[in-house]
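Session log. Operator J.P. requested a structure for one protein chain; no other inputs attached. Running the standard single-chain path with token output.
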Amino acid sequence: MDQYTLNLIVIGLSFALYIGIAIYARAGSTAEFYAANRGVHPVLNGMATGADWMSAASFISMAGLIAFTGYDNSTYLMGWTGGYVLLALLLAPYLRKFGKFTVPDFLGDRFYSNKARVVGVICLITISTTYVIGQMTGVGVTFSRYLEVSNATGLWIGAALVFMYAVLGGMKGITYTQVAQYVVLIVAYTIPAIFISLALTGNFLPQLGLFGTHDPSGAKFLAKLDQVVTDLGFNSYTGHHTGTLNMLLFTLSLMIGTAGLPHVIIRFFTVPRVADARASAGWALVFIALLYTVAPAVGSMARLNLTTTMWPGAVAGETFSQPAVSLADIESSPDLQWMRTWEKTGLLGWEDKNGDGLIQYYNDAAAAPPEGLGTAVAEQNLQGNELTTVNNDIMVLANPEIANLPGWVIAVVAAGALAAALSTAAGLLLAISSAISHDLIKGSIRPNISERGELLAARVSMGIAILIATILGLNPPGFAAQTVALAFGLAAATIFPALMMGIFSKRINSQGAIWGMIAGLLFTAIYIFLYKGWFFIAGTNTFEDTPANWMFGISPASIGSVGAILNFLVAWLISRATDEPPVHVQDLVESIRIPQGAGGATAH
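Structure written below.
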């Protein structure tokens, strides 16, 4: 059976499973649509949270970013994992105890203001829309390769699938679909990692193989990887090469942004009790760890596999052999078929610049080839690195093909990548839908809307959100993980400070919270949009997205930390300059932190 047919079968079966679950678990009420009727078991909720959490950024893009940068991009691991711990300890149990459906619901009641609810809706939609663009980017990348269609066609196929099971099932259908998607994605991520770890290190566990010995050469695996990439003129894999301040701010932005993600927070509203919220948070950490501890090994092994494909002599330690592969081999060798396949997607590309029939691979940032290439190469008429395009988002997907793993493994990886992207996309779209139908329409515009009307509004708004997210996903502002990082920055600057102050400070009033969120949102969004080219100012390159142009050297992906500080500061100053919250609101804040039954604070 050819690979294309195998891909179709495995992906088709996974889609049939998701749609079947959605039909079986169709939501028939707003309680089921928004919170699965608060009847999800903690273990299942932990698994669903893991799938909701491990998006296309985690499955597809994170290991790719680590592969090409190494230690410096470990910030993604530290920030996202640390942020989830922050969410589980400081926010989730208290929000579940509050007993509402959504984050804007909490903001509206805690800050006794419909304006606070509306500002929360605006922040939530901005965050979730930016985040879902990253998921649709991952869907397009996966479909374009495995179904051999264009990136745009892949996006529309993915949108249609999400529409079918998310609009139909709501939170109830999404929850049980995400349980199935978690199983698919974790199997798809770990199986090829085990195969590749055995081949490169002889170690069954990729986590241990990363620190083990590189079998073909006998050197330590990471030392071998460092040697190969530095011989080609690239930065060492294990070294620190970026600004420490920016790295710290980026990690912090990811952490507090994680704790403010609305689509993850609402997962804790689906369990029966506060104790179950804590338990499901613990289970989610276990399920997340199964992928996150493997990701560094996947990234590093993918980088070595790619490099040694372009430079076969490096496997045996021949550091001065020519780092190139011939065009003839690319066209005819079965081992290099993956290059021809990925070239068709536009995500991998090469050019024989000097016409010698070889594709040289080295860092051409300097005027001359790196010294490690040897005199035989240095004397050639080289005109720069000829592997012109390697999209970070292909590394996890292409890794099984580069390593010549069986066809069924490649097909399972495709299904896993789609499961990761679609599970998170569904959660985000539900968050957007809930904000519009429950918080905006029912909470502000039509308080007396019937339950049937609200359910219809929720489904229509989700359909519109899917359409907008797909259109924006056609031209994303970066790789999947980079786009998601921008969403985390927006969450860090808006939702997280408001939730923290709402739970742990009785003094923060509605005026402070509203203007704090507005200040954080405007500052962070404008900074991101300026440097990502979404605002055009004729005749200037002041906002070119380069470290030299960043304000104080802070990247757009890191600016959420500064936005959060601004939010806290504005909220505190305005609250101090205005009246204290009403006594009943202060009592509400106190009751949220006192152990008692779920929903006891608001009798829900």
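Operator note: The CA atoms of residues 48 and 179 lie 5 Å apart.
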